[in-house]
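hey so i finally got around to running the thing on that chain from the lab meeting. sorry it took forever, my laptop kept dying and i had to restart like 3 times. anyway pasting the input first so we r on the same page abt which one it is
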Amino acid sequence: MDAPEQQTAPRRRAGTRWAAVGGLGAVAALSAVLLTDPWGTEDTGSPAATATAPVEAVSAAPPTAAPTGTPSAAATSDRPAAAAPVRLTVEDARFDVTVLPLTPSEQELATELLVPPDTLDGYWLTPYGMPGEGSENTTYITGHSWEDRDAPFNRLSDPGLVGSEIELETGSGTLEYVVDSVVTHDKNTLKDSDIWRIVPDRLVIVSCYTEDLWGKNVVLTASPAPA
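ok and heres what got predicted. didnt touch it at all, straight out
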C-alpha cells in the first residue's frame, strides 16, 4: 500500500530540545529527543510494567558498537522480515500517521540533540532498530504534539491506551504490537532513561506530554502481539 503524502504542519516555532514534543498556539511543541547509544545496553528482562505517573526522562546517543541482543521471543517466522516502517496506526487513539525515516546528522549525533521536521508525520530513527523478524534493537518513532490543535500525537498522552493494539506497516508487511506502558519523562533526562535498552522488535513511540508540552515527554512502549 502506498504511503500518503507527507502532511506539512502550519507555522513552526524555534527549535527546542529533541527530548520532547509540544507547541505554542497552533504550533508544534518540538519533539526534541536527546540521543543515546543505539547499541549501548542490552535488555535482560521484559519491558517495564504499566506505569501512568510521571517519571524522569532520558536522552539518546550515536551508534558505537554492533548489537548484542537477540530477537524478541515473541517474534516468529510468521512475522514479516525486518524492514523500514511506513505507517503507524493506533485505532483506540484514532491515530493514523505516515512514518518517514529520520537519520541524525553528524552534528546532531555529536551534540546528542535532534529535532524532527515540523510536520504531523511520525519519524523513525534509523540508527536504532528496524521492526520485524530478525530485528536487532528497539524501533523508535517520534512526532510532534500540538497546543490548541487536535493533532495525531496529542492523542497518545493517555494512560488508558495500555493494552491497545498497534499496527505498524513496513516495507515487508504489517506488524501487530500491544501497548505495555504509557509513561512520562522529563525532557532533560530522557537520554538516560531505560527506554534505550536494546530490546529486539520492541516499539517505542515518543512525543510531548500534552499536560506539560515543554517539560515532559510521553513514551509508549509496545511488544509484539502474541501469535
